[in-house]
Amino acid sequence: YSYNYEYTYWRHSPGIGLKYKFSDFNITASLNYQMSVLPETITKNNIYTSLLPSFVISYKLSQKSNLRLNYRTSTQVPSGYQLLENLDKIDNTSFYQGRNDLNEQYTHSIFGRFQNVGSDFSKMFMWNFHLMSRSNFLANNTIYLQQDTIIDEHRFAKGNTFSRPINLNGYLDGRTYIVYGFPLFELPINCNFNFGLGYTKTPGIYNGISYLSENYSGNSMLVLTSNISSDLDFTLTAGITSNYTKMNTTSVSNSRYNTFFGNINFNWIFWEGFFIGGNAREMFYTGLKGDAKTNYSLVNLNIGKKLFNNAAEIKLSVYDAFDQNKSIQTNVTDYYREDVYSNVLRRYALLTFTLNYKNFYSKN
After folding, report:
1. Sign of the C-alpha dihedral, residues 197, 201, 202, 207?
2. Among 80-94, 216-230, 328-342, which is the least confidently predicted range?
């Protein structure tokens, strides 16, 4: 299944733009004509043309708050891998073959942000949102073979999957998140609260039936940071992320999984340049498949001494002190979800010496 190809394409994009500024209001708008030229050796549609409008609007509501809105369009040409009609064996049961008649993908995206800072600059509120839609989305047309089958002179066994790229409409992605920061009472501690929501809709074809895969996500996080003195600081973090995937096809069931985490970082210079520090993270997963233990603690510790007026330091670090580190990743595609457990480097110790050399001088 090996093959070699050279894929070079040209993109030409002349355009015109206008910028207008009046008091606290600014707008920049542009329109580009774009032509992408692909090599004729791997595609039938080797010339793509499109119009790409965009604009940016910013408005200063007051000395402490502002609003910004950004709209842009872009395109993505099919990759050489998607255009080449060579069969690729992904794994023992999955095969992929490109097609040379694909169109380029066209994206509309709009981003907005509102930001407000307190009168004494101790408080901050920010709200962001992002919406994106794509036409001619580069999706997959997948067949699960119920029996031994021959496709384009290639023989596939029962239980194999065969996929080809296809242009489909209906892709949508939306994200929003809020950040609010404020001092905690009269203590030298800052509190930040983050909250976000997301939604993605991905079209595809499975066994000849069109479907939409929908993913709903949410996350919240609380962060406490402190600089009690120049010799002591710490950060506490706690949060949760939640995902729900809805497959609008009878071949794959809906799924829900969550991740809970807590984290602490600290650094303390306790005597004559001697310091101690580290971080600890607790991870807990729910909704994953399989019997593997999914919660773990990751603790890293270090101790050392600063030398030469803080220009150097010698430090002994222990990574993963409890020997529990894991790598767990969930991948959601347009027609399946997989949980990946990987072997990772675990407990070890490291002795380092660091020297910072600085030489600042004036013209004189």
Report:
1. positive
2. 328-342
